[in-house]
Amino acid sequence: MKNIITRAAVVLLLAVFMVPSAISQEIGIIQATATVISSLSILGSNNLVFGSVTPGINKIVPRTSAGFAGEWSITGTSLSELSLTLTLPTVLDHTSAAATMPISFSSTDAAISDGTGSQSAPNAVVDPNGPSVFRLGAGGLMYVWLGGTVQPSIAQSGGDYASNVTLTIAYTGN
Question: Are the beta carbons of 145 and 67 closer than 8 angstroms?
């Protein structure tokens, strides 16, 4: 008889404690969402052109020199933040001989526009020697211009010289 009473008490206690929790249970649901931003596009639209260079005389191409300064155009998601990194050469290589010519870039040799500035009146002057972070314009545009200086020696070999200048861009996520 004692076992029957104990079992009845256990069943009664379980019923009492389980029923209220089942009655007061609620469910809340949310969604996990994400928007994938459009991919970036970059186009090198003008080479950094020094033209004819005289041995022993440095030649400067300002970032504002249309048609001579290097130029890239970037398109992507409006107002997104981008990191910009330039990989700059230290020399230009002779295209057919074992010769090089030094090239340098000052802290004011680059500039950007978010589509509201111009090459002669950019939105910001950029140090091409370090990474930079900027936002694309409201139209999803950005332009980057680059100038520099070549330093031919007095005994510089004649001929054509060239090296790659690489602009790397990426969304920061901000």
Answer: no
Q: For residues 84 and 171, what is the distance between their CA atoms, to the nearest angstrom?
A: 9
Give the pTM.
Answer: 0.80
Percent of the chain with pLDDT over 70: 87
> Amino acid letter at 61?
V
| Digit-coded pLDDT (tens) for 144-158 | 999 999 999 999 999
**Which secondary-structure segment (H or E) carries 14?**
helix 2-23
Which CATH number, 3.30.2420, 2.60.220, 2.60.40, 3.30.70, labels domain 41-171?
2.60.40
**162 closest CA partner among 78, 70, 79, 41:** 70
List the domain boundaries for the chain.
41-171
Q: What are the CA-CA distances from residue 138 to residues 58, 80, 102, 142, 169 (Å)?
A: 39, 9, 39, 10, 18
Please tell me the distance from the alpha carbon of residue 165 to that of residue 146, in angstroms, as a whole number. Answer: 10
Task: Give bridge partners of residue 167 from the DSSP assignment.
Answer: 86
